[in-house]
Structure formats: C-alpha cells, structure tokens
Amino acid sequence: MPGIPKAEQSQQTREILLRAARKLFTEKGYASTSTEEIVQRAHVTRGALYYHYRDKTDIFKAVFEEVRLERVRLITETIQAAEGDPWQRFAGAGFQVFLETIRDPDVQRIVFTDGPAVLGLAVVRDNSPGLIFLRNTLTHLMDTGEVEQIPVGPLSAILWAALFESGMYVAHAAPDDAARVQEEATDILQRIFSVLRTAPQQETT
C-alpha cells in the first residue's frame, strides 16, 4: 500500500481480517473455519494474520467483541429514538430490539452459539458491554425514580443473566417457532423487570 502511513496500513489489514473472519465464522462456525481460509478470504499473508492475532481463538474473540458492541450501540440508539417515558423505552423498545437482533445470523452463531463454547462463560460475562449498558441504564432509572433503589451491582448481574439466557432461548429456537419464542421471551422479561418499577405517581385532584 504505497503512500499510506504504516499505522493506517496496519489498521486496514486488521479490519480486512476481521471482515473476512466474521463472514466465515457466521457461515461455517468456529470449528469449521481455518486460519488458512481466513487469510485467503482476506487476501493477506498468514504472517499478517499472526502479526495482529495470536491464533484463531484470538481473532474469534475480536470478532465476538465487535458483534456485541454493535448490538449495544443499536439497542442504545433504538431506546433513545423510541417514544414514551424512560421505562417504556427501556422495557419496550429495548427488549424488542434485543431479542430481534438475536436472529441475525452473525449474532446467533458468533455470540449465542460459538461464543460461550469457545471463550467460556467467564469471558462472555466479564466486561460485557451489555452488562455495562444494563448497569448504567438501571442507575439512570433509579436516579429518575422509575426503578426502586436496589444495589445496582448485583441487580444488574442477575438481570443480565436473565437477558443472556433469554437470548440463548431465542437463538436456539427452531425457525418455525422463532416468532412465538421471541414473543414469549419478551413477555417474560417484561414481567420480571416490571417488579422493579416504582408505582406511578397518582395525580391529585
């Protein structure tokens, strides 16, 4: 890449590798994808791959992080653009887009199928952008009086587990059952989270 600074070339190569790996991991899964296929799809050398990533697991982890960060951004944007009070935007539009995106092929395969198996639940859980987003959202809802004051650390960890397991439930549903399963999961999540909501203030006459 003549004329392009070395740092920019390195970043471009990294992005090319991530795109190629993401497509292959989505199409074939982690186990059936080789590093040779990744470099061939990316049209780079094997040395370029190992310059940026230690091995196949390392590049898979990078793809995994990219996919779930994209989902958090999408959920955040959807909640911000939705109508209603903070609680309605969170428990309505937020839950809906969370479960809808699980059926996306890359999310389903990379995040909810291969992610836990390849990286382990500890890696999936620790520093999860979804967990951080949930903790920040619950803190905001407590500050605005939408949710009762409860220690936010354990609360967000427990509720994130419920969200993650609902995602697993939806991701592994049979295609013919997808709509029903998503509707069931949405209803159950809203019932669980509704317990936290403070009673709406009654207007006095």
List keywords for this structure.
74% helix; disordered C terminus; 205 residues; 10 helices; mainly alpha; elongated
Using DSSP, what is the number of strands? 0
> What percent of the residues sit in helical stretches (DSSP H or I)?
over 70%
How far apart the termini lie comes to 73 Å
| Beta-strand content | under 5%
Mean pLDDT: 90
- Main sheet record: none
Structural class: mainly alpha
Q: What is the ordering of alpha helices and beta strands? A: HHHHHHHHHH
Shape: elongated
Number of helices: 10
Ranges where pLDDT stays below 50 over 5 or more residues in a row are 201-205
Rg result: 20 Å
Instruction: Please state the oligomeric state of the protein chains shown.
Output: single chain
